[in-house]
């Protein structure tokens, strides 16, 4: 017999249907999704962040009463569901700039009962055939490519162009560099960005052209046995992904089946929250298009207590609505949402937040009914000074990986910019929000970290492509390869002699395919293999370093002082960039010229370019939140006012802000009291700890990960 040792205070009863404070419905994107797959993708980081926030010492957490308790985790069956209770210190009035909560002794903590469920629509319809999908995909492919290149044009070319124009108009006292040097740097940024854009455009257009020629031929080619054996798996995977999009656009009856799944999930969430809780929807990619149409065109959000729609990587503009043959129905989701909210009481309005990654080719920027409005809202995100954006959802431009084609699928891994805001919405108003300066600074540091990771990958690619081909390195690798093959040959010879008495053929190591004919250097194949292995190693090391840098900012209770963090995070970026520059210089020396003046000029140019690349993430414009519209109490709609977030103070000013310094110092005081000379030195240098005479804080009320 099992005997529970939990006290009544420790034991939290599982909420019953109708008792939940918030229910979050997650909707997956295009492609097949296994049962509970999308639920786990979002639930695990969300609950992890909720627990971290609830136990934050800065708001009075850190004891056993606070945190997340999971009641139900049903991950199989027709209705996967996760329920939990989040317990945290109750907010008591104005907490001041540092958010420090000092609950009264014996005060009951705040509790939020949360349910998370998924709307998995991928198996709600019969898929289209390959031929039908390929016929539809050809014109759609170029629409998607055009939107993608428009977004990349903005990110690579227009941002530096608008930055230069802004610098030309700005007072000299506000510039970080002298005007003439600022002008040169801006033009270098424009030229480099334009060159990269041309390369990316040529690659994407070439890829699209090949796909356009191959798509009509794929179905007939599958009749050939050997081609079917080789390619059918890949083709079926592509059809499985884009086939969902084709079905949504071209088969209205099946599209209705997708929407029915979303409606059922929202209805189930409404039953869980009863008459006092709230329902929220978080939808990704194609799921965002399905959920947005369902909510705005087919449901009454107020009746379902639906209070928030969060779209991430949304293909709302790209996919729109289904097409009936012979009918052309305009689709204006933003106008529909505006009309819905303008006539509703404040308590019944539907908030809409849209998260789009700056390199996401499918969302391709903000949501708007008209292209000019989308561009205006995109520009406002980067250059908010004096801007009055057109009406639309609250726009969050985020950085998931800062790498093209990878940003779209990793929103759930972006804790500071996507997961934490969603977690705060689930916690409600009882949980204190960070001061604006702290939130802005953490957002900027997150962007710098993601840009650094992308730069490291590009630098690793340059290093890996060049270094194995340099004569000295190639000779070393060839000698290493001969040693390895000789060792393997000797081992095989011993095994052969032991069992059969046979002997190896002479000089077998000289015939290795990765060695050149003379055996003193790598062959072309060996060079490629060595480059692939070196690239994989450099990327792995860079990811490990960046993961440490990321965790030191996101998960530490007392993160490094921002200035120290910026310095430390620059070191690996500088190492990778300088490594790439050195590899290019040696390539010039080995394969082009040994002329000393030319080499000196090349070295100076490479150093200048390297310095520019290293500091670029630190000083490049970072997007801000573009607020949604302002609805008047009488149901009228007003133009969105300038919002506090529609300013872009420099990182230096944010670090000097009193709110940030108060929070930094409060976190340093709440960590474990350093007891040794080394820990005190570490605390002073890296955490700005400056209170060596303060008494140690009781471990029952603090949680420490710092000195």
UniProtKB/TrEMBL annotation:
Residue intervals passing through the bilayer: 140-162, 195-218, 454-477, 484-504, 524-542, 574-592, 598-615
Listed InterPro entries: AB_hydrolase_fold (IPR029058)
SUPFAM superfamilies, per database record: alpha/beta-Hydrolases
Coiled-coil segments on the chain, per record: none
Signal peptide: none
Keywords per UniProt: Membrane, Transmembrane, Transmembrane helix
Keyword Transmembrane helix in annotation: yes
Protein name (Swiss-Prot/TrEMBL): Alpha/beta hydrolase
Source organism per UniProt: Agromyces bauzanensis
């Amino acid at each position: 017999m099992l005997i529970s040792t939990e006290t009544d205070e420790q034991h939290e009863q599982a909420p019953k249907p109708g008792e939940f404070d918030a229910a979050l419905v997650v909707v997956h994107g295009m492609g097949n999704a296994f049962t509970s797959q999308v639920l786990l993708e979002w639930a695990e980081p969300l609950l992890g962040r909720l627990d971290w926030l609830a136990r934050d010492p800065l708001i009075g957490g850190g004891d056993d009463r606070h945190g997340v308790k999971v009641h139900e985790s049903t991950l199989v069956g027709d209705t996967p569901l996760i329920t939990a209770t989040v317990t945290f210190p109750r907010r008591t009035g104005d907490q001041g700039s540092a958010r420090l909560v000092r609950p009264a002794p014996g005060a009951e903590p705040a509790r939020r009962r949360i349910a998370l469920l998924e709307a998995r629509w991928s198996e709600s319809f019969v898929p289209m055939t390959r031929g039908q999908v390929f016929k539809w995909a050809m014109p759609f492919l170029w629409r998607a490519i055009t939107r993608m290149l428009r977004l990349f044009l903005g990110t690579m070319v227009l941002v530096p162009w608008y930055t230069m124009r802004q610098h030309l108009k700005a007072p000299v006292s506000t510039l970080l560099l002298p005007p003439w040097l600022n002008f040169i740097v801006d033009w270098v940024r424009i030229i480099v960005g334009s060159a990269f854009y041309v390369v990316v455009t040529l690659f994407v257009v070439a890829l699209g052209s090949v796909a356009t020629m191959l798509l009509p031929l794929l179905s007939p080619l599958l009749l050939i046995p050997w081609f079917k054996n080789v390619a059918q798996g890949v083709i079926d995977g592509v059809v499985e992904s884009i086939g969902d999009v084709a079905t949504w656009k071209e088969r209205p009856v099946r599209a209705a089946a997708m929407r029915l799944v979303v409606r059922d999930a929202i209805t189930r969430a409404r039953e869980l929250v009863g008459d006092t809780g709230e329902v929220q929807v978080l939808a990704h990619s194609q799921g965002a298009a399905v959920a947005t149409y369902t909510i705005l065109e087919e449901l009454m959000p107020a009746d379902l207590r639906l209070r928030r729609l969060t779209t991430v990587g949304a293909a709302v503009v790209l996919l729109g609505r289904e097409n009936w043959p012979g009918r052309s129905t305009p689709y204006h989701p933003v106008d529909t949402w505006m009309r819905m909210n303008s006539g509703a009481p404040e308590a019944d309005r539907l908030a809409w937040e849209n998260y789009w990654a700056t390199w996401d080719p499918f969302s391709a920027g903000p949501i708007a009914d008209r292209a000019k409005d989308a561009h205006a809202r995109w520009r406002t995100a980067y250059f908010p000074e004096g801007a009055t954006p057109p009406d639309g959802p609250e726009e969050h431009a985020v950085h998931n990986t800062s790498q093209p084609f990878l940003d779209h699928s990793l929103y759930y891994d972006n804790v500071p910019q996507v997961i934490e805001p969603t977690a705060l919405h689930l916690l409600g108003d009882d949980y204190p929000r960070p001061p604006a300066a702290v939130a802005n600074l953490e957002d900027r540091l997150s962007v710098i970290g993601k840009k650094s990771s992308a730069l490291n990958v590009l630098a690793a690619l340059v290093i890996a492509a060049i270094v194995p081909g340099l004569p000295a390195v190639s000779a070393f690798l060839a000698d290493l390869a001969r040693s390895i093959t000789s060792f393997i040959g000797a081992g095989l010879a011993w095994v052969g002699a032991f069992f059969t008495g046979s002997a190896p053929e002479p000089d077998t190591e000289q015939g290795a395919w990765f060695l050149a004919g003379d055996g003193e250097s790598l062959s072309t194949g060996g060079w490629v293999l060595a480059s692939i292995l070196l690239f994989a190693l450099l990327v792995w090391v860079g990811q490990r370093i960046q993961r440490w840098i990321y965790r030191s900012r996101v998960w530490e209770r007392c993160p490094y002082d921002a200035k120290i963090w910026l310095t430390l995070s620059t070191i690996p970026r500088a190492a990778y960039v300088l490594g790439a520059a050195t590899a290019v210089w040696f390539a010039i020396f080995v394969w082009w010229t040994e002329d000393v003046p030319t080499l000196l000029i090349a070295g100076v140019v490479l150093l200048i370019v390297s310095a520019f690349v290293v500091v670029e993430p630190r000083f490049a414009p970072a997007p801000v939140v573009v607020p949604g519209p302002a609805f008047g109490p009488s149901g009228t709609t007003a133009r969105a006012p300038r919002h506090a977030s529609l300013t872009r103070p420099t990182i230096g000013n944010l670090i000097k802000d009193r709110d940030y310094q108060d929070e930094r110092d409060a976190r340093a005081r709440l960590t474990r009291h350093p007891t040794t000379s080394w820990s005190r030195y570490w605390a002073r240098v890296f955490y700005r700890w400056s209170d060596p005479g303060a008494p140690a804080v009781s471990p029952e009320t603090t949680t420490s990960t710092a000195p």
